[in-house]
Amino acid sequence: MEQEKSQAELLKEQLFMQRKNGGLILDESQLKQADDFCEEYKNFLNRAKTEREAVDYAIEKAEQNGFVPFDPSVTYTAGQKVYYNNRNKSIVLAVMGTEPLENGVRLIAAHIDSPRLDLKPNPLYEDHEVALFKTHYYGGIKKYQWTTIPLSLHGVILKQDGSKIKVNIGEDPGDPVFCVSDLLPHLAVDQMKRTSPELIKGEELNILVGLHPFRDDKVSEKVKLNILRILNEKYGMVERDFISAELEMVPAFHASDVGLDRSMVGSYGQDDRVCAYTALMATLDCKAPSKTMVTVLADKEEIGSEGNTGLQSSFFAYFIADLAKPHGVEGRTVLSHTQCLSADVNAGFDPTFPDVMEQRNAAFCNRGVVISKYTGARGKSGTSDASAEFVDCISRLLDRSGIVWQIAELGKVDGGGGGTVAAFLANLNMDVVDVGVPVLSMHAPFEVTSKLDVYMTYRTFYEFYCQ
């Protein structure tokens, strides 16, 4: 027979905030929904390892769901769906709502770039009868983590005749892969004396490309020549075409279930494609929003959101201005009344490395989507710091929608820090807060997320759009 709860127990239930594992809150059918949702998510991770591939995927799915390319001369009305492709490296999707645009839009912004190794403009060389590619690392993976893992080559080549060729080598069964070699421990006495950031130096991130020489004693650099012969036969390219190419090395392994219970997804590029995918799916699934909903999948976040495809560019503000102009509304009016979720990940608490977290304010895997009121470093440098009113608005939305959620910082004060696109969007005079998925091994070649958290993030974005 169950004992009656004491006054203190009842008071604690009333006053304390409950922090529970989502597996103890959701029923079996909801957990299955999370598992099912992540099946196509894993396919997305395998197909969209670069920002260009993510844009291609988004356009394919958008067009299947009735979206058409944006035309700034058209006055769009409720229910119409448009997308704007910004240079094949970022994309904006919008579904017109029933409310007038002067009331603002509901915006979700994620990024689709991830740390990688970019080939240099003159990458191919031969050294002691080994052909290699020179690279320049992009974004913040610890450099030593790039060594001795299988890599695939993705990107585009613009040939001298103006044609564009897509490159994808290392993903299909039977494809060759690439790798960065490392020094064997038997001979690494001096290397191991380096500090960890210098354990592998940037100029040592060279890609093994080939060993076979072209059989002709009349020429030098026979191995390099043989590699160029293969590239010429496959793509019709010559060495000069590297100058006008964007070629990226990324981990070759595919997204997988992690754990005996299959509760996690392991993959390259989940920062921030986990939020990009969940935002995209919410955009496609919300059919009749009251406020116009806009989704931005942006480039260049990992290097500061610079350039004309990053969110420090004006392309998004221009899109809003063009969307609003036929309605006789100023773009700045729309932006000033906009609510935005900056959809980016947070660091999940790792019990192997507990000291970097202040556990009362850490994000835990399987406790649902995480709100980050601010990010930044030290004294909140580089963050927008969401208002109490907007945090309250979003948290109440999550509560009434039955979504498992938590709130967290990014590690201990003075322990490091990081930023998102939130500050750049807040500069446009909108309300912004960071919302996303806790990630283990963030900024590593193989990142891990909880399927439950991924699904709760999708539900958050869907409810935000459809409220």
The global form is globular
Radius of gyration over all CA atoms, rounded: 24 Å
Characterize the biggest β-sheet.
Answer: 9 strands, mixed
Number of helices: 10
- Percent of sequence in beta strands: 15-25%
* Global structural class: alpha/beta
- The low-pLDDT segments are none
Span of the ends, CA to CA: 43 Å
The helix content is 25-40%
Mean pLDDT across all amino acids: 95
Number of E strands = 23
Q: Strand order across the biggest sheet? A: 1-2-3-14-4-15-21-17-19
Structure report:
The structure is a single chain. The protein is of the alpha/beta class and 467 residues long. It contains 10 helices and 23 strands. The strands form 5 sheets. A 9-stranded mixed beta sheet has the order 1-2-3-14-4-15-21-17-19, sandwiched between helices. Strand 2 and strand 3 form a beta hairpin. Helix 2 packs across helix 10 and helix 5 crosses helix 10.
Can you give me a brief rundown of this structure?
By secondary structure, the chain is of the alpha/beta class.
Give the SSE layout.
Layout: H1 7-15, H2 28-47, H3 51-64, E1 68-69, E2 81-86, E3 90-95, E4 106-111, E5 116-127, E6 130-138, E7 151-158, E8 164-169, E9 179-180, E10 207-210, H4 222-235, E11 245-251, E12 256-258, E13 264-267, H5 270-285, E14 293-298, H6 315-324, H7 331-336, E15 339-343, E16 346-347, E17 369-372, E18 376-377, H8 388-400, E19 405-407, E20 417-418, H9 422-426, E21 431-436, E22 438-439, E23 447-450, H10 451-466
Parallel strand pairs: 1-2, 4-14, 4-15, 15-21, 16-22, 17-19
Antiparallel strand pairs: 2-3, 3-14, 5-6, 5-11, 6-10, 7-8, 7-11, 9-10, 12-13, 13-23, 17-21, 18-20
